[in-house]
Hints:
Elements: E1 3-12, E2 18-27, E3 32-38, E4 44-51, H1 64-92, E5 135-139, E6 153-159, E7 164-169, E8 175-181, E9 184-189, E10 195-200, E11 205-208, E12 213-217, E13 225-231, E14 239-240, H2 241-246, H3 252-258, H4 263-273
Antiparallel strand pairs: 1-2, 2-3, 3-4, 5-6, 6-13, 7-12, 7-14, 8-11, 8-13, 9-10, 9-12
Helix pairs in contact: 3-4
InterPro entries: Cupin_1, Germin, Germin_Mn-BS, RmlC-like_jellyroll, RmlC_Cupin_sf
Pfam families: Cupin_1
Binding site for oxalate: 165, 170, 175
Amino acid sequence: NLDHRDIVFVSNEEDDDKQSTVLDLAVSQDTMITFQLNGGDGEADDKHTTAQGDIEEDVHDTPPNLILNMALNFLKPTLFLLVVAFTTSQMVYASDPDIISDFIIPANASTFIDGAFFTYTGLRGVVGTTPPAFKVTKASLAEFPALDGQSVSLAVLQFPAGGVNPPHTHPRSAELLFVIEGSLEVGFVDTKNVLYTQILQLGDMFIFPKGLVHFQYNANSKVPASAISGFGSANAGTVSVPATIFATNIDDGILAKSFKTDVATIQKIKAGLVVKA
């Protein structure tokens, strides 16, 4: 059972005459490869049989473009694997970059660094208070420069009775939430549009996978709730779904068609998202 393929080459001889050469490549099931070079008259000029992957043909008797094609055929699988490996490695390490020093000192910081540089006091007085609406107090790179290069940040989430943290995502990190007051209904939606929800009590923890839309809600109409969230990035980023869709000047007509409603409804939703002074 042989599979024959003819490849035609044109080579220049010493007398500048062009001569066609046909390579008859026969691959047998016992992994033997037969190369037969035929001249223009159809008679066999040379024939070599060797084990697959170990071609011993004299390069002087082989057309140069045949050698190139043979080399490319052997290299293609290797090149493909290298590309896949490189792409995968970039995906694995797509997070805060590693640093080659113990810590990073901002360019505008004092040359003298002491313990104060590694201390953040912005959360004093936050825990134990109840804001009138949902509030997030962050300790991220923007607020705490010492976090640069450390791949970590934190936020305190405060929910009044009935308060909600609207659906949102963190594109650069997962979120680990720890309930320190009251209870919370939490959930996230995966890339298959499956919703995962849970009611958390005081002391419970919940993980929101990186980049997925999620929310937190204090369903209790009388008791406030609070939580602390940790992130594996100094700047996890937050993309609010309602604000991104309805507060970024996307055309009302496009939104109406997307949500299968009318422009008046879209405008009403937008008006409800306006922050009142």
